[in-house]
Write a structure and sequence with these properties.
The complex is a heterotrimer of chains A (158), B (381) and C (357).
Chain A: H1 2-29, E1 51-57, E2 62-63, H2 70-74, E3 80-86, E4 92-100, H3 109-113, E5 119-122, E6 137-138, E7 144-145
Parallel strand pairs in A: 1-7
Antiparallel strand pairs in A: 1-2, 1-5, 3-4, 4-6
Chain B: H1 6-10, E1 21-26, E2 38-44, E3 47-54, H2 62-66, H3 71-81, H4 86-101, H5 107-136, H6 140-160, E4 169-170, E5 173-174, H7 182-204, H8 208-214, H9 222-228, H10 233-236, H11 244-247, H12 268-292, E6 312-320, E7 323-331, E8 339-343, H13 345-349, H14 353-357, H15 362-371, H16 376-380
Antiparallel strand pairs in B: 1-2, 2-3, 4-5, 6-7, 7-8
Helix pairs in contact in B: 3-4, 4-5, 5-6, 5-12, 5-15, 6-7, 7-12
Chain C: H1 5-23, H2 29-63, H3 79-88, H4 100-117, H5 135-143, H6 145-156, H7 160-191, H8 196-206, H9 215-228, H10 254-278, H11 295-316, H12 322-352
Helix pairs in contact in C: 2-10, 2-11, 4-5, 4-6, 4-10, 6-7, 7-9, 7-12, 9-10, 9-12, 10-11
The chains are: A alpha+beta (158), B alpha+beta (381), C mainly alpha (357).
């Protein structure tokens, strides 16, 4: 009968509305999942592709980079410009290294292509907002990073 | 030319208005979270007479750019073709290139690819659920969906370092092996997540208001769907079995048990139900894949510079979160593709919007558009 | 002397009359007393509405697993003050071809009309601005004012979308007034009085609150009240993801603030009426009456619970389409409320016989 269906529709509709309300009101009493940045920060995983740094060897007092240009060829966006010279003892060393972070997509190809452990991702530095776009074109002094002594079982991307 | 409706373009550019009709712009900026899609709607009071989508606001010439990049470099651009489910597009391109160059990825890589693509499907459907409910008016499931998505993205970040544009699935395998604590964390996430799907269904599925907004609205009949090239969950809501994972299995989908989710009514509610069921199936696939993982290499032996054979072409397709994602590659003997084309599900699905909404009200455009799971970067590339 | 609402009113009234006698204007006491009561009520409601805006944001945030405002002031309590200041210093953009006087009057009428409804709400025995003996009728009549204001706002904006939004909004409010009135009728039948204080007194004498026999009426009342206030799930006229912005599209700054706050005041008025009719107004829960908590604290507590329920509606349910909304109002709510009246009358006759008529 149409009447009975009308009333059962109303009752079942009302019941389903109450079930939905119970879900939302239930969440009202559970905790929040917000991390209140900047007072609380979550540590990023070790493999996080946050900021690219040039590794500087503190003992030998030079950058690891030998200007083999593999990173420059690997980059999809031509962000890297680099030059090197052949030094007196026959080894190549890098003289200038510029990476334009405004076009970098943090794909990681440069870090993977480097065979000399010269480039790495540093997961602690991810707050890279600047006031002027020009400051995103970083040279080797801005990207200098000395690798901290790590325990043997910690893993990084490269 | 872009300001005219399709019917006017066909009629030679003349404005032909009936009585009481007016044109309204559902502009590129609107709070519905689909992206920059512009719809020109011809209305009579509140009834829709015609809808024309205007595309191109997010066109970034990815296909043209790929012609000047080597095959591995193209993978970084595929992340951006559909940034909500980037792993799927990575996979589509990687599979196409592997077929073109006859490379076979090792089995551990294939299992890992399956796990990540299914996790990506979960993440994409969660965002879809939030956007769909938000368009209809329930603003809370959006936050719930994003909360679960954060956990999935934590799993991704643990493995490859990024949360949105992964560049993880490479030609010949995957980028890097998973960490030892990935498997227990993934299992813990799945155990946490599985009851949540039921909870979100409690909130939405049988809610009488939701049913009124979506049942019977935007019915795609099977003939219209197949004629227009609709694919994916949008077509499975109309009863047609079109899952590429079952039809032309890739990776190891023929070795895991999962059901193809099909509903027969063809309206927005069926498409919603199909996607919720797909989330459950994905959870089951991930569990089975986690058990079948064995140690082994993660990348095939390949020449250092990948070159396609001369005069070769391939069209390869996978089932991404939205439907059939196809990649068409033409190789010319060099390290860069001569042509790369992406066949994206959203672009083809958008075509039926006009036919579905004629005679309905404005509020139904939102329901139908939401049920298509449209992502504008995929439409425009 | 116990700390009850009655005593507070008595003390304040004595103090005021002493001041009048000092100033020599005792004869004007009947005129100045209601004015002062109205001003106190106005200030209280103004502060309460600011609190409510904060409460809505916090409640919605916690339902969505996030923290709401928590930076401006302790726990974000001054967030509404910051929003009010922002709205006040905003540029008042007016359409050039508007109808000037109606455009100016519409938000004022909305604001004032909803405030006028608070005049008869008893916070405690005797704590009411003016206890009219046609209280319920007065409130229902006042809520009809908002229809005129909305139509005026839509028309004077010189914007066809605002006009359409205004029409839809007005149609919605008019159609949901019928179930609002019909759901209150059984209560009036049971108590025999229209005065709100009288209804609470009846509940005190009867010993039970009207929520128990009239649960259906409560549900219909709450649903109609959310529709009257243009709140979700009935907020198609002002929904953000819809095409038409609604009657307040062309308003900015303080005028928009008046519409916005007017919506919250409508919620407060409807919830106060619901608390008075169904939950016993200022009456304590009988097993907790030994705590001697003053009546207005009970009233405010119950009011906050009902307002919480209305807020939960907004953040849980999707939106109804306009024609579905009208269908629901006319085809579901009105028949059920009429049936409720018949049922109440039948049960009343059965229980008490002809002598109760």
């Amino acid at each position: 009968m149409g009447m009975i269906k009308y009333f059962t529709n109303i009752v079942s509709g009302f019941w389903n509305l109450m079930v939905g309300l119970s879900v939302t009101i239930g969440y009202f009493f559970k905790g929040t999942t917000t991390v209140q940045y900047p007072e609380e920060r979550l540590p990023l995983p070790a493999r996080s592709r946050s900021m690219i740094k040039l590794i500087y060897d503190g003992e030998k007092d030079q950058f690891n980079c030998v200007a083999c240009l593999m990173c420059m060829k690997a980059c999809p966006n031509n962000c890297i410009k680099l030059e090197g010279v052949r030094q007196a003892d026959g080894k190549r060393r890098m003289t200038t290294f510029k990476l334009d972070f405004s076009t970098c997509i943090f794909c990681g190809y440069c870090v993977e292509a480097c065979g000399f452990d010269a480039l790495t991702f540093v997961s602690e530095e991810y707050e890279n907002a600047v006031y002027k776009r020009g400051s995103l074109l970083q040279d080797e002094q801005a990207m200098k990073w000395i690798r901290p002594i790590q325990p043997a079982n910690q893993e990084v991307l490269k | 030319m872009t300001d005219l409706l399709l019917s006017q373009v066909k009629a030679g550019g003349e404005f032909q208005f009936g009585a009481d009709e007016y044109i309204v712009n559902l502009g590129p900026q609107h709070p519905a979270t689909h992206g920059v899609l512009r719809l020109i709607v011809k209305l009579d009071g509140e009834t829709i007479k015609e809808t024309t989508p205007i595309l191109g606001y997010l066109h970034r010439s990815i296909e043209k750019i790929c012609e000047n990049r080597t095959y591995p470099q193209c993978i970084t651009y595929t992340d951006r073709v559909d940034y909500v489910s980037a792993m799927s597009v990575n996979l589509a391109f990687a599979l196409a290139t592997e077929k073109l160059m006859n490379i076979e990825a090792p089995s551990r890589a294939q299992w890992l690819r399956m796990i990540f693509v299914e996790l990506q499907r979960l993440a994409s459907h969660l965002l879809w659920m939030g956007a769909f409910a938000g368009d209809i008016g329930a603003l809370t499931p959006f936050l719930y969906g994003l909360r679960e998505r954060e956990r999935i993205m934590d799993l991704f970040e643990m493995t490859c370092g990024q949360r949105l544009t992964y560049n993880y699935i490479r030609i010949g395998g995957v980028m890097i092996d998973i960490l030892p604590d990935f498997v227990p964390k993934c299992r813990a996430f799945l155990d946490y997540f599985q009851p949540k799907i039921d909870e979100y269904e409690d909130l939405l599925s049988y809610n009488p208001i939701f049913l009124e907004r979506t049942k019977g609205v935007g019915i795609i009949t099977p003939e219209v769907g197949i004629d227009a090239g609709v694919c994916g969950p949008t077509l499975r809501g109309s009863g047609i079995a079109c899952d590429v994972r079952k039809q032309q299995s890739y990776l190891y989908y023929d070795q895991v048990q999962f059901n193809e989710c099909i509903e027969t009514a063809g309206d927005c509610w069926s498409r919603y139900k199909v996607r919720m069921n797909e989330m459950r199936e994905s959870v089951s696939i991930i569990r089975q894949s986690l058990e079948r993982l064995e140690p082994g290499p993660i990348e095939a032996k390949m020449p250092p510079i990948l070159k396609a054979p001369v005069n070769s072409e391939i069209y390869s397709r996978i089932e991404s979160s939205r439907g059939e994602m196809g990649v068409y590659l033409v190789g010319d003997g060099t390290a860069k593709p001569w042509k790369a084309k992406f066949r994206c599900a959203s672009f083809n699905n958008l075509y039926v919007l006009d036919q579905l909404t004629r005679g309905w009200k404005i509020a139904d455009i939102m329901s139908v558009l939401g049920s298509f799971d449209l992502i504008v970067p995929e439409v425009d590339r | 002397m116990m700390f009850t609402g009655e005593n507070i009113v008595q003390i304040v009234s004595d103090f005021l009359h002493w001041i009048y006698s000092q100033l020599g204007i005792s004869s004007l006491a009947g005129v100045i007393d209601p004015i002062i009561a109205a001003v106190v009520m106005f200030l209280f409601i103004a502060v309460f509405v600011m609190f409510l805006v904060w409460m809505e944001r916090k409640v919605s945030a916690h339902m969505q697993s996030r923290i709401g405002p928590n930076r401006v002031g302790p726990m974000g309590l001054f967030q509404t003050v910051a929003d009010a200041i922002k709205l006040t210093i905003k540029e008042d953009i007016k359409p050039v071809h508007r109808d000037k006087i109606p455009y100016f009057i519409a938000p004022i009428v909305t604001f004032v009309a909803t405030f006028m409804g608070m005049v008869v709400i008893p916070f405690d025995k005797g704590m009411v601005v003016q206890d009219l003996n046609v209280g319920i009728l007065y409130i229902i009549a006042i809520t009809g004012f908002t229809v005129i204001a909305i139509l005026t706002a839509g028309w004077s904006s010189n914007n066809k979308f605002a006009l359409l939004g205004g029409f839809r909004s007005a149609a919605q409010i008019i159609s949901y007034e019928v179930p609002l009135v019909l759901s209150v009728v059984p209560i009036i039948m049971m108590t025999g009085t229209l005065s709100l204080t009288g209804i609470v007194e009846y509940q005190r004498q009867a010993g039970y609150w009207f929520i128990f026999p009239q649960i259906i009426a409560f549900i219909i009342f709450i649903t109609s009240a959310t529709a009257e206030a243009n709140r979700a799930p009935f907020d198609i006229p002002e929904a953000e993801s819809e095409l038409i912005g609604g009657f307040h599209t062309e308003y900015s700054g303080v005028k928009f603030a008046m519409f916005f706050l007017g919506e919250y005041i409508a919620v407060v008025v409807s919830s106060s009426v619901a608390v008075t009719l169904f939950f016993g107004g200022w009456l304590p829960l009988s097993f907790l009456s030994f705590l001697h908590i003053p009546g207005f604290i009970w009233f405010l507590g119950k009011l906050l619970l009902v307002i919480y329920l209305i807020m939960a509606f907004r953040w849980t349910f999707p939106r109804l389409r306009v024609d579905q909304l009208m269908d629901f109002g006319w085809k579901v709510l009105i028949p059920v409320s009429i049936l409720n009246i018949l049922l109440t009358a039948a049960v009343w006759l059965l229980l008490y016989g002809k002598k109760a008529l």
